[in-house]
């Protein structure tokens, strides 16, 4: 039975690298992987998934209004898709996560989603929250804080390196914008003893 998977972590954990390696494994065995990424994130170029270590591959894009079930049903009618890979899965809408669950359930195609769990404020992205609720298999991709402990949080910085505590949930950026930290150092960076005030 096909499953919906969610590989989650903070920034700079290697999610895109893992996705590209897994997709390559399918391709190498003569199977067809279908790669999707969020249209909003074009840092590597439009319709491209790329990792910090230099790997990259072309992908189709999705926007908030894309019906992923209808799209994958149409694609599956044209060719035998072995697995669907979704990068930047935190940008999925809750409805799109349900659509991907239907792809696994009704079309029998495994769906592997890779994305962030929480934003710079420590809050779940809506797509990630729905994936945590619906995914058949949850896998944490680990990275480390500067202290050596597991990084589970991320801070957003401005161009001078100052930590930002407010702003829109979505701001596209990489190492110049985000820094992965353990919860203790994230709290310290925010200047909070317990975490952000509600």
Note the main attributes of this structure.
198 residues; alpha/beta; Rossmann fold; six-stranded parallel β-sheet; 5 helices; 28% helix; Thymidine kinase; Thymidine_kinase_CS; Thymidine_kinase; zinc ion binding
Secondary structure layout plus pairing:
Blueprint: E1 4-9, H1 15-28, E2 32-38, E3 48-50, E4 56-58, E5 60-62, H2 68-78, E6 81-86, H3 94-107, E7 111-116, H4 126-134, E8 137-140, E9 153-157, E10 163-164, E11 178-181, H5 183-190
Parallel strand pairs: 1-7, 1-8, 2-5, 2-6, 6-7
Antiparallel strand pairs: 3-4, 9-10, 9-11
Helix pairs in contact: 2-3, 3-4
Description:
The protein has 198 residues and is of the alpha/beta class. It has one domain (4-142): Rossmann fold, CATH 3.40.50.300. It contains 5 helices and 11 strands; from the N terminus they run E-H-E-E-E-E-H-E-H-E-H-E-E-E-E-H. The protein has helices spanning 15-28, 68-78, 94-107, 126-134, 183-190; strands spanning 4-9, 32-38, 48-50, 56-58, 60-62, 81-86, 111-116, 137-140, 153-157, 163-164, 178-181. The strands form 3 sheets. A 6-stranded parallel β-sheet has the order 5-2-6-7-1-8, with helices on both faces. Strands 10-9-11 form a 3-stranded antiparallel β-sheet. Strands 3-4 form a two-stranded antiparallel ribbon. Strand 9 (153-157) and strand 10 form a beta hairpin. The radius of gyration is 17 Å and the shape is elongated. The relative contact order is 0.20. The mean pLDDT is 85. Pfam families: TK. InterPro entries: P-loop_NTPase, Thymidine_kinase, Thymidine_kinase_CS. Its EC number is 2.7.1.21.
